[in-house]
Amino acid sequence: MTIPASAGDPLAGVLPATVRDKENRVSAVRPYRPDDRESLERFYTCYSPKREAQGLPPEGAHRIARWLDSILGQGTHLLVEHEGRLVGHAMLIPTDRPGVSEYAIFLEEGARGQGLGTEVNILSAEVARTLRIDRLWLSVEPRNRRAVRSYEKAGFRFRPETVFTPEVEMELVL
Ligand SMILES: CC(C)(COP(=O)(O)OP(=O)(O)OC[C@H]1O[C@@H](n2cnc3c(N)ncnc32)[C@H](O)[C@@H]1OP(=O)(O)O)[C@@H](O)C(=O)NCCC(=O)NCCS
Q1: Would you state the pLDDT for residue 164?
Q2: DSSP label at 44?
Q3: Cα 153 to middle of ligand 1, angstroms
Q4: Which of 62, 143, 164, 170 could lock 156 by a disulfide, CB 3.0 to 4.6 Å apart?
């Protein structure tokens, strides 16, 4: 019997995937691999503006490396590439709550506002469903209207008890 290369990979049916922005430009989304570490560090070194989303991504090579050390060892990380260049990173990180993962996404400045983030959020929800995650959770500053809207369009809803706090929480029940 020939075992396909993808056997045992729960995401084989979902990733890699292509997504299209509002201008119909195609980007590829695939799982992070350990040999992507250097390009991910470069992505966050060039990322601008730093610390805009609740202090993330951190500033400085050392802090970026430490942050990546802490997040890459857990959960599921998706890389977004346009014409072979890394333009985004989305992550699903397990939380203390069983079945609940935290979701975050960072697109490079030039890739924002064109519908790409929404599409990656929708795909990430599909990834979460495939991984049998029950719920995605995130916190976001309400002034980050673009992020809030892109999450809403992917199905996230506010947790009502947090709407008057400096960082609102949103959840997507899968
Ligand atoms: C957040 C992020 C992933 C969103 O992705 P994106 O590709 O920029 O967003 P999209 O273009 O898919 O969608 C943005 C939506 O917000 C809307 N929007 C933009 N600015 C807005 C504003 N000031 N008020 C209300 N809506 C706004 C857009 O019109 C669009 O909605 P529409 O498609 O219905 O017109 C991306 O902007 C990003 O990486 N930002 C920096 C990092 C960050 O903030 N991450 C979130 C951490 S919680």
Answers
A1: 86
A2: H
A3: 10
A4: 170
Query: Which of 150, 167, 170, 172 should be mutated for ligand 1, with most atoms under 8 A from CB?
Result: 150
Query: Domain of 64?
Result: 17-173
Give a yes or no: residue 167 inside a domain: yes
The pLDDT assigned to 69 comes to: 97
Burial string for 21-37 (b: 16+ CB within 10 Å, else e) reads beeeeebbbebbeeebe
Rounded distance from Cα 76 to ligand 1 centre (Å) = 22
Q: How many CB atoms lie within 10 A of CB 124?
A: 24
0.70 surpassed by pTM: yes
Q: Report the length, in residues, of the chain.
A: 174
Which pLDDT belongs to residue 49?
A: 82
Domains contained in the chain, number = 1
For the chain (174 residues), the mean pLDDT of every run of 10, in chain order, is 63 96 98 97 92 85 96 97 98 98 97 98 98 97 95 96 90 98
pLDDT given at position 90: 98
**Is the CB of 20 inside a 6 Å radius of any atom of ligand 1?**
no
Q: Is 118 in the pocket of ligand 1 (CB under 6 A)?
A: yes
Residue 43 lies in a domain: yes
Two tokens, residue 159 = 């947790």
User: Is the shortest distance between the CB of 139 and ligand 1 below 6 Å?
Assistant: no
Of 150, 134, 157, 132, give the one whose Cα is nearest residue 90: 150
